[in-house]
Every structure is written in structure tokens, then in C-alpha cells.
């Protein structure tokens, strides 16, 4: 008998994007520049010199993009708010025109029966706050809470699900340790401070929500499960370190109020003893957690690997995406089950999942054939269904991404979209994966058994 992949009737089907990756017009209507605008305008930082100046021009085309969502049958859309549009200096003066953009977007979504869900911070810190030390400044938690409260007051009621921070690991690792992402620092002594302030900020945002909000709030972690390359004790220890560094470093302070002991081993004297009372702030009760899952890594001990002394081992004879990530759907189920085991039965959303593959040029046909992305979706959604059956409290799924967009410092070279975007003309063309996802949504997953 064929297995049924029908999902629960209240399962939420969505897609996700983020502000700097799609909006364009970063300084329009009085917005203050973000660290990403600065970074992108610094020679040598971005592939092909790409910037988010235009990106998908979503700031001006948002109504058309909502129609693309509607064509997919999306029930929910996860977007992020550009902090500097709302508060050009990061704190203080509110810019009504910037706030109005998100208000109009939310109304447009609601008019089309699409539930808006908002992420407050997806990496585009206002440059004015970076000038004050950015995430290295302890005041950043308070800055974030002030900004969050402005949005809650303006949009809560129309937006019923909020996320504080998207993927703090990427901010710390890419922004403060390895420097490949904004603000481009490379400093082992800064990275732990950035982590700690990001998690304090997330907690402060949740606290602010409890005072003025009436619905639900959580935080988004990117979780990449780690598997040892062999049974050798040094590989197993390296796997523990890699896991603590990437996964537990952020989820532990938020959900357990501690840091894993491996961080001291990894960072040595760069890992400070944080004040115990800070953990009351980091560990605020959440209504749900968002998990972004793309790939796994298989790990071996490697003295030269910084900072964890743990290196990924590329898996032979496996499909890899254009970003070099192994396609490994089992890791998604393993991740959600691990999360439940470690942190308890918190409602979960998969807030991002997707893949960059080579897409053929858009020809005469009205669909871009992308069989690898379609297969990725199919296998990962099947894995999710199995997870729900095994008792994981999974409430919804957001494909990354609605549109091809600016893949940060990789520029427009990596395409993750369900819709192809021609960055010269801004024309959007559905990919076969978009059609497939629309069928999944319409059949509530039943089509996955084919
Ligand atoms: C981020 C997205 C990014 C995607 C693909 C996630 O790390 O939240 O902004 O485009 O992965 O790399």
C-alpha cells in the first residue's frame, strides 16, 4: 500500500524572504543605511560587486509579489523588517514612511488571505548602531527592545506571529569571527560578546512583547546536525564541539539559560564568564521556535580548523547544492527530534528550507525546469511528515525562498527561489518547483506519495 503523506489540516504552508535580500531601495523614504548596505558598497566584499540597491525591487513591487504568493496558494508569508527603515538611527526618531511600507505589505497579505509572520532582525543592523559598537555594545539589547516595541505597537493584531532574531550563529560566525558577512570583523574576542548580546537582545524583545503584544513570539535558529566521520574518539569529540559551536551556542542560552561547556574549550580565554543574571534575560519563555534547516555536516578532528578544530568531510556520491551543501533530508528529521529531546515539547516551525541549484535560462517556455530543487522539496517534506507522525510538534513549513534573491556576499549567483527572477528586467517566472509546491499545498501533502 502506498504511504499517505497528508499533513494535519491546521499545518501552515508558507515561504520566506528577508528584507535586504529582496527589497531594494535601501535608502528610500528616509530609511537609514544598514551595515549590509555599507558592506555591499565596500569594494571586494560581494561576488561580482552585487548589492541590494535594487535586488528584487520588492519595495516597489510588493503587490505583484503577493500575487505570486497567492498563485502558490501560500497560507503564510515570512518576511523581515529592515530596522533602519523604521528607525533610521536605530533608536529614537521613528520614520513613519518606513513603518508604513510594512503596514501596507501586511494589509496586502491579509486582503489576499495570507497570514503575515514577521522577523524583526535578519542581519541588517542600522549602520548608526554599528557606529556605537553594534552587537558588541551591551546596550544593543535595549536598542532592539525599543525597535521591537515600535513594531509591536504598530502591527500586532495584524501580525500574530513574530520572530526576534534570525540565525544568530550566522551573525556571530560570519559577521564577527570570519568576516565574510557584515560587519566583516575577524576577532575571536568579539564573537562571544556578539553571541551573548544577540541572545540578550532576543530575550529583551520577547520581554517587550509580553508587555504590549497579544499573540505569539519566538526566535529562529539555523540548526545543522553534526555526525562523526568515524568512531575514533577524537572525531566524536570534534563532532561535539562543532555541534556546541553552531547549534547549542544559541539555543541553550535561549531555552536552558546556560552555554554548553565546549565553548570554553573552543574559545579559551576569549570566552568570558558572563554575569549569571544575564541568563534570566536570555531565557524568556517562547511560544514557538523557528528552525532553518539546509544541510548536515560529517565531522573529523582537524587541528587547523578554526575555531572548533573540527572539519567537515565532503560526502562522496551524494548530491550537493550550488552552495556546496550535501542534500540530506534525514538530517531534518534528526534535527527536529534532537530539538525536542533537548529542549522539550516546544511548538516548532521550519522557517527556512531550500536549495540553490543551477537553473537553465528562461526560454520560451513559461516554466523553469528545476528537477533537483523539486526533488529536494519532495524528500524534505516527506521527512517532515514522518517527523510529525513520530510525535514532533511541528506546526508549519516555510520554503526558502519565494524569489531568487541576493544571497548575501555571494550576490545573485546562487538561486534559491521558487520563482526565477531576471535581475535585468525584474521579470518573475515560476519554476517547476513552484508548481510542485502549489500542488503539495493544495493536496495538503497527498501529492508527496507520488
Ligand atoms: C538565511 C538566508 C539565506 C539562506 C541560504 C539562511 O542562512 O536565513 O538569509 O539566504 O540561509 O543561505
Characterise this structure:
An 8-stranded parallel barrel has the order 1-2-3-4-5-7-10-11, surrounded by 5 helices. It has a 3-stranded mixed β-sheet with strand order 6-8-9. Strands 12-13 form a two-stranded antiparallel ribbon. The longest helix is centred in the middle third of the chain and has 23 residues, at 233-255. It is α/β, with parallel strands linked by helices and 450 residues long. It has a single domain (12-449), classed as TIM Barrel, CATH 3.20.20.80. It is globular and about 60 Å long. The chain has helices spanning 19-22, 35-40, 58-72, 83-86, 96-111, 127-130, 140-155, 168-177, 191-212, 233-255, 262-267, 278-282, 330-343, 371-389, 432-442, and strands spanning 12-16, 76-80, 115-121, 161-166, 216-222, 226-228, 288-292, 297-301, 310-312, 348-352, 394-400, 419-421, 428-430. The relative contact order is 0.14. The structure holds beta-D-glucopyranose (BGC). Beta-D-glucopyranose (BGC) binds at residues 18, 21, 166-167, 170, 222, 292, 352, 400, 407, 416. Residues 18, 21, 166-167, 170, 222, 292, 352, 400, 407, 416 line the site of beta-D-glucopyranose (BGC).
Structural class: alpha/beta
Distance between the termini: 12 Å
CATH class: Alpha Beta
Count of all domains: 1
Shape: globular
Radius of gyration, taken over Cα atoms and rounded to an integer in Å: 21 Å
Give the ligands present: beta-D-glucopyranose
Q: Helical residue percent?
A: 25-40%
CATH superfamily: Glycosidases
Mind sketching the topology for me?
Blueprint: E1 12-16, H1 19-22, H2 35-40, H3 58-72, E2 76-80, H4 83-86, H5 96-111, E3 115-121, H6 127-130, H7 140-155, E4 161-166, H8 168-177, H9 191-212, E5 216-222, E6 226-228, H10 233-255, H11 262-267, H12 278-282, E7 288-292, E8 297-301, E9 310-312, H13 330-343, E10 348-352, H14 371-389, E11 394-400, E12 419-421, E13 428-430, H15 432-442
Parallel strand pairs: 1-2, 1-11, 2-3, 3-4, 4-5, 5-7, 6-8, 7-10, 10-11
Antiparallel strand pairs: 8-9, 12-13
Helix pairs in contact: 3-5, 7-9, 8-9, 9-10, 13-14, 14-15
This protein binds beta-D-glucopyranose.
Amino acid at each position: 500500500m502506498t504511504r499517505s503523506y497528508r499533513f494535519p489540516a491546521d499545518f501552515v504552508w508558507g515561504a520566506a524572504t528577508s528584507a535586504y535580500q529582496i527589497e531594494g531601495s535601501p535608502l528610500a523614504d528616509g530609511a537609514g543605511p544598514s551595515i549590509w548596505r555599507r558592506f555591499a558598497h565596500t569594494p571586494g566584499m560581494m561576488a561580482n560587486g552585487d548589492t541590494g540597491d535594487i535586488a528584487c525591487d520588492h519595495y516597489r513591487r510588493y503587490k505583484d509579489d503577493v500575487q505570486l504568493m497567492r498563485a502558490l496558494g501560500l497560507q503564510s508569508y515570512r518576511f523581515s523588517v529592515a530596522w533602519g527603515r523604521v528607525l533610521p538611527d536605530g533608536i529614537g526618531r521613528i520614520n513613519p514612511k518606513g513603518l508604513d511600507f510594512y503596514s501596507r505589505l501586511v494589509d496586502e497579505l491579509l486582503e489576499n488571505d495570507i497570514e503575515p509572520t514577521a522577523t524583526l532582525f535578519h542581519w541588517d543592523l542600522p549602520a548608526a548602531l554599528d557606529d556605537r559598537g553594534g552587537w558588541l555594545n551591551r546596550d544593543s539589547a535595549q536598542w532592539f527592545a525599543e525597535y521591537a516595541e515600535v513594531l509591536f505597537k504598530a502591527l500586532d493584531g495584524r501580525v500574530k506571529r513574530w520572530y526576534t532574531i534570525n540565525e544568530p550563529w550566522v551573525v556571530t560566525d560570519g559577521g564577527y569571527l570570519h568576516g565574510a558577512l557584515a560587519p566583516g570583523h575577524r576577532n575571536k574576542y568579539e564573537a562571544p560578546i556578539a553571541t551573548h548580546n544577540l541572545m540578550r537582545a532576543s530575550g529583551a524583545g520577547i520581554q517587550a512583547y509580553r508587555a504590549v503584544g497579544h499573540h505569539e513570539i519566538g526566535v529562529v535558529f539555523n540548526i545543522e546536525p553534526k555526525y562523526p566521520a568515524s568512531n575514533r574518539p577524537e572525531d566524536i569529540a570534534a563532532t561535539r564541539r562543532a555541534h556546541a559551536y553552531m547549534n547549542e551556542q544559541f539555543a541553550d542560552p535561549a531555552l536552558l539559560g546556560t552555554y554548553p561547556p565546549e565553548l570554553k574549550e573552543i574559545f579559551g580565554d576569549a570566552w568570558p564568564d558572563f554575569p549569571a543574571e544575564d541568563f534570566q534575560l536570555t531565557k524568556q519563555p517562547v511560544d514557538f521556535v523557528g528552525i532553518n534547516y539546509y544541510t548536515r555536516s560529517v565531522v573529523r578532528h582537524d587541528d587547523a580548523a578554526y575555531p572548533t578544530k573540527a572539519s567537515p568531510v565532503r560526502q562522496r556520491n551524494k548530491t550537493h547544492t550550488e552552495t556546496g551543501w550535501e542534500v540530506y533530508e534525514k538530517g531534518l528529521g534528526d534535527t527536529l527530534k534532537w530539538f525536542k529531546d533537548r529542549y522539550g515539547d516546544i511548538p516548532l516551525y521550519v522557517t527556512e528550507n531550500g536549495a540553490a541549484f543551477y537553473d537553465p535560462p528562461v526560454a520560451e517556455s513559461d516554466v523553469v525546469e528545476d528537477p533537483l530543487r523539486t526533488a529536494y522539496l519532495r524528500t524534505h517534506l516527506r521527512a517532515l511528515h514522518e517527523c510529525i507522525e513520530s510525535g514532533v510538534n511541528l506546526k508549519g513549513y516555510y520554503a526558502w525562498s519565494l524569489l531568487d534573491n541576493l544571497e548575501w556576499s555571494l550576490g545573485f549567483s546562487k538561486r534559491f527561489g521558487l520563482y526565477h527572477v531576471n535581475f535585468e528586467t525584474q521579470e518573475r517566472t515560476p519554476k517547476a518547483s513552484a508548481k510542485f509546491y502549489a500542488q503539495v499545498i493544495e493536496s495538503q501533502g497527498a501529492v508527496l506519495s507520488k
